[in-house]
Amino acid sequence: MSNINTNPEEQNLLDSIFKQKRILRSKVRKTLKSMDPSLRSHEDIAIQNNVLEAPWFKSSQRLCAYISCSALREVDTSKLLSEILQTPANGGDMNRVKKLYVPRVEDKNSHMRMFHISSIDDLIANSMEILEPAPVDANGHEREDLMQANEPVDLFLLPGLAFDKSGRRLGRGGGYYDTLLTKFQELAKEKNWRQPLFVALSYSLQILDEEIIPLTPNDVPVDALVTASGIIPITPAALDRMKL
């Protein structure tokens, strides 16, 4: 996406960056397509276990997470979602209950919303066979939208095509996450909330050398990466919350 107020020189630069991104996306997709299925399965399990054991995950009460799509070769989140949505048994610690928001793509103009769900049954497959929440529940009630939340969100678990250890993230080109994350950062600032932690889940082969991923002014960096071999904190916020 380009800004409508850019001058010709800036637009040429942006066009060049978008072209570089398209080329890089094509390379990463080919690499992911050739990834050994047993390695993928091993890393899916290890990455999710690393998230579940992380202090910043355990302490999070409200979080956003993507619904993984195997066709897109995203890091699996099914175990994470199951754990998040699990209700404590009778007499269990209700403080451990986490509130979960998941994404729904609204249109082709980078408009995505995050809705609160309480069960996997709240999800339905869209035209691309990607699971999403319907805007209303089974009783016809509107689901709570993240941007109308009355409390801060602690954590975003993010997908992507590629990342580097300086926090750069290469998405799929739609700008959906960058747009949503920017809006929520603005909301948190307006309400004087602590900014959420942006954590990306990454296969080992998705982590590229630094500065290979080109940047535009609209790109939102991540605070940490979670890989099969461990957690890579990037920002001071990530380092601080790892100590919890």
UniProtKB/TrEMBL annotation:
UniProt: substrate binding residues: 67, 74
Cofactor: Mg(2+)
Catalytic activity of the protein: (6S)-5-formyl-5,6,7,8-tetrahydrofolate + ATP = (6R)-5,10-methenyltetrahydrofolate + ADP + phosphate
Pfam families assigned to the protein according to its UniProt record, in alphabetical order: 5-FTHF_cyc-lig
Enzyme Commission designation: 6.3.3.2
Positions bound to ATP: 21-25, 169-177
Alphabetized GO MF terms: 5-formyltetrahydrofolate cyclo-ligase activity; ATP binding; metal ion binding
Coiled-coil portions: none
Family: Belongs to the 5-formyltetrahydrofolate cyclo-ligase family.
Name of the protein in its database record: 5-formyltetrahydrofolate cyclo-ligase
